[in-house]
C-alpha cells in the first residue's frame, strides 16, 4: 500500500495507460480521479475500476483553462487534496513535413504541451498552497528522444514534455513537489489502429504490418502493454523515488538508452 490515502489525478485516465495506472494506484491504496475528455470512456473506465468510493470520474479538456480549473476545484471539493498528478492526456498525428497542416500542429501542441503544462501548473499551485508537497508525472515518449521523419510534430511535443519535466522539476522541488516523467516506447493500445493506418497510408504498407514490425524490433520482442507502465508510475509517485527529481524514465523494452 505504497500510496495509502493519497489522492491521484490522472488525465486521459479513462483508457489505455491512464486506466492501467489508475487500477494500480487503487491497489496501492490511493483515491483516484480519472479525468478525460471522453465522458463515455469515463463511465466505462469507472466500471472497470469497480465504481467504489475511492474513485471519481471528471470531464476534462486540457486545452481549456476553465476546464482545468473546474476539474481541480471538483477534486478538492470531493477529496480535499491532490497528492499526485499523472499528465497522461495526449493526441497523435503524423504526416510528411511538407504535408503537415497548421490545425494538426496546433492540436498536438495544445494538448501534449500547453495542456500538460497548465494542468501541472494548476495542480502544483494547490500542492504549494497546501504546503504538502506532491508528485507530478508527465507522460513523454521515446519519440521525444529522437526525430522521426513522418512524426515531426509529435516528436517535438514529446521532446517539449521532457524539457518541461526538467525545468518544472528544478523549480518546484524547493516546494517539495517532485516532477518526473515516463517515456513509453511503442504501446499496444486501441490508438495503434489509427497509427498503423497512417503508416500504411504514408509508407504504402498493408494494414497491420507496421504494428507487427515495430513490435518485433523492440529488444524484448513485443510492444508494451498498458500494465507495463503502472509499476514505474507507482515508483515515481511513492516515497521510493523520494530522491528522484526532473528525470524521465525510459520504459520501452530496451528501445532507447539514455
Give a summary of the structure in a few sentences.
The chain is an alpha/beta fold and 258 residues long. Helix content is 45%, strand content 15%.
Structural class: alpha/beta
- CATH class term: Alpha Beta
Tally of individual domains: 1
Please mark out the parts with pLDDT under 50 across 5 or more consecutive residues, or reply none. Answer: none
Helix content: 40-55%
**Discrete helix count:** 8
Describe the protein in words.
This protein is α/β, with parallel strands linked by helices and 258 residues long. It has a single domain (7-251), classed as 3-Layer(aba) Sandwich (Rossmann fold), CATH 3.40.50.720. Helix content is 45%, strand content 15%. It has helices at 16-27, 39-49, 65-79, 102-129, 152-172, 191-203, 209-217, 230-237; strands at residues 7-11, 31-36, 55-59, 84-87, 134-139, 177-184, 248-251. It has a seven-stranded parallel β-sheet, with helices on both faces. Helix 1 (16-27) crosses helix 8 (230-237). The longest helix is centred in the middle third of the chain and has 28 residues, at 102-129.
Amino acid at each position: 500500500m505504497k500510496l495509502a490515502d493519497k489522492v491521484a489525478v490522472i488525465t486521459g485516465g479513462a483508457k489505455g495507460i491512464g486506466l492501467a495506472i489508475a487500477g494500480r494506484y487503487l491497489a496501492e491504496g490511493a483515491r483516484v480521479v480519472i479525468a478525460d475528455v471522453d465522458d463515455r470512456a469515463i463511465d466505462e473506465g469507472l466500471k472497470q475500476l469497480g465504481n467504489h468510493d475511492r474513485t471519481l470520474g471528471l470531464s476534462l479538456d486540457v486545452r481549456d483553462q476553465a476546464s482545468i480549473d473546474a476539474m481541480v476545484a471538483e477534486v478538492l471539493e470531493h477529496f480535499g487534496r491532490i497528492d499526485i498528478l499523472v499528465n497522461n492526456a495526449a493526441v497523435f498525428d503524423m504526416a510528411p513535413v511538407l504535408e503537415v497542416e497548421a490545425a494538426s500542429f496546433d492540436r498536438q501542441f495544445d494538448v501534449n504541451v500547453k495542456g500538460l503544462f497548465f494542468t501541472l501548473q494548476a495542480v502544483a499551485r494547490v500542492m504549494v498552497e497546501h504546503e504538502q508537497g506532491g508528485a507530478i508525472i508527465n507522460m513523454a515518449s521515446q519519440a521525444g528522444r529522437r526525430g522521426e521523419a513522418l512524426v515531426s510534430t509529435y516528436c517535438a511535443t514529446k521532446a517539449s514534455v521532457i524539457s518541461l519535466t526538467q525545468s518544472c522539476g528544478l523549480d518546484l522541488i524547493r516546494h517539495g513537489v517532485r516532477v518526473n516523467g515516463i517515456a513509453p516506447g511503442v504501446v499496444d493500445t486501441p490508438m495503434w489502429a489509427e497509427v498503423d493506418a497512417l503508416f500504411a497510408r504514408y509508407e504504402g504498407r498493408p494494414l497491420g504490418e507496421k504494428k507487427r514490425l515495430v513490435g518485433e524490433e523492440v529488444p524484448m520482442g513485443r510492444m508494451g502493454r498498458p500494465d507495463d507502465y503502472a509499476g514505474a508510475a507507482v515508483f515515481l509517485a511513492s516515497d521510493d523515488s523520494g530522491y528522484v527529481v526532473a528525470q524521465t524514465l525510459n520504459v520501452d523494452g530496451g528501445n532507447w538508452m539514455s
